[in-house]
Amino acid sequence: MNAAALEISGLTKRFGGLVVTRDVSMRIAPGERRLIIGPNGAGKTTLFNQITGDLQPNSGCIRMFGEDITKLKTRHRVARGLARTYQILTLFPQETLLHNVVLSLLGLRLERWDPWRILANRSDLFDLAQDSLQQVGLGASGRRRVAETSYGERRRLELAMALAQKPKVLLLDEPLAGLSPEERNGVSELFAAIPRDVTIIMIEHDMDVALAFAEQITVLHFGQVIVEGTRSEVVSDPRTREIYLGE
Ligand SMILES: Nc1ncnc2c1ncn2[C@@H]1O[C@H](COP(=O)(O)OP(=O)(O)OP(=O)(O)O)[C@@H](O)[C@H]1O
């Protein structure tokens, strides 16, 4: 069997007495589109934070393409091809869109503490940033400042920042939150256009868009995997209805 893009085994995270992820295991194949759903407080974001290394689990293991990354620092996971967007936007509002993407790229590079060298001779970074803006429909907006953009444009920018890193595994945390129905459709078309060499794991509450996107769905509840399977298996499972739809 080929190595999974991401394999999580027995992941447990406690905050004091509260167990936020409880013995969570899942296997996500290369190229898969996986949706993670569950009620508020189910532990979805905490799971993402452990995958990225923002939080250390109390026990369990995370492998990316066969390599144990559980103890790696976030930047080393990023260097191996992990990227994420955040539920809360993390942009520099007074900078231009193009500069925001370039800044996100600099996080990857060794020379990030030497800005003069970068500015003198890094047209490659600006080209990469421009391509990524193009990819999310913001190709003509690179010179605008983030402060002048709409919320929907910022969410696209955030996606451009993640895509600019040429990720192998992309984590999207509620990428449609706060968007109008038209913006949701536009952004979900962008997801559909992301090539299959990128594995995508999405947390999302908007079921219409998320179900159209997902091939496999994992339902979390009180930190545990309750249901997992294909879209139709999960939707028809009575436990999903009970937990997630409150029926
Ligand atoms: N740093 C922390 N310290 C203590 N408790 C925390 C911490 N981070 C999260 N929690 C708790 O862990 C639980 C799970 O939170 P988490 O944000 O992972 O849930 P979620 O499924 O992403 O929810 P939502 O859909 O509301 O974003 C919640 O009860 C939350 O209050």
From TrEMBL:
Source organism, top-level taxon: Bacteria
MF GO annotations: ATP binding; ATP hydrolysis activity; L-isoleucine transmembrane transporter activity; L-phenylalanine transmembrane transporter activity; L-valine transmembrane transporter activity
Single GO BP term: L-alanine transport
Domain ABC transporter intervals: 6-247
Keywords from the UniProt entry: ATP-binding, Nucleotide-binding, Transport
A GO cellular-component term linked to this record: plasma membrane
UniProt key word Phosphoprotein: no
Entry keyword annotation includes tRNA processing: no
Name of the featured protein: ABC transporter ATP-binding protein
